[in-house]
Amino acid sequence: MLPVILILLTSLPARAHKVRIFAWEEGGIIKTEAKFSGGKPARNSTVTVTSQKENEEILKGKTDDRGVFSFPIPKKARDNQLNLKITINSGDGHKNSWLLNAEDYLPGVSSTPRKTEKMTKAPQRKPDQEQQLPNEVLLRKIISSELDRQLGPIKRSLALQQEKPTSLQDILGESAISLA
Questions:
Q1: CB neighbour list of residue 72: distance below 8 Å, 6 or more residues apart
Q2: H-helix segments, the chain
Q3: What is the pLDDT of residues 97-109, one digit of tens each?
Q4: What is the pLDDT of residues 41-75, one digit of tens each?
């Protein structure tokens, strides 16, 4: 009878304590939010930021009472256009990570190389017209910042929808690994 009960329990989904993390850039600050299944914030959990390629630790911190940890874009990450692996560890073997690609937090960085376009002579403008037009770099920065601000909640919602239910088998597997 016991084996039958164990088989039934391992096939049922469990939403125990799976932790998830979401990260985005807003105004030169990388913000992270960590929660357990069901929406409870992962308080006082360790957040480690590493470079994806070399797996080198860049910084470490703790989440606040809302499960939030924020930090300015690290100089090393900005200078080297690093993809960042942001890992949450809430203890008791509850870990998860989020990959924040350089193009997601650095303006002007693209994952695909751009073709160089031939420069064409710009049409002649009167001096008073030039003062009214924003330069291209400034315009791109404004648009990028506004898009990041508006798309942050949408990205967070998509990340929540991608969550797979944790099964009892996952929990027992993690427990067995942590005991070994």
A1: 28, 29, 30
A2: 2-11, 75-80, 102-105, 127-132, 136-161, 168-179
A3: 999 999 889 887 7
A4: 999 999 999 999 889 999 999 999 999 999 999 99
Give the CATH number of domain 15-107+132-162. 2.60.40.1930
| Cα 56 to Cα 21, 35, 50, 59, 145, distances in angstroms | 19, 25, 5, 9, 28
Query: CB count, 10 Å around CB of 86?
Result: 24
Contact 34, 63 (CB under 8 A): yes
Residue from 152, 156, 154 nearest 34 by CA = 156
Where in the chain are the domains?
15-107+132-162
Asked if residue 17 lies in contact with residue 35, where contact means CB atoms within 8 angstroms, the answer is: no
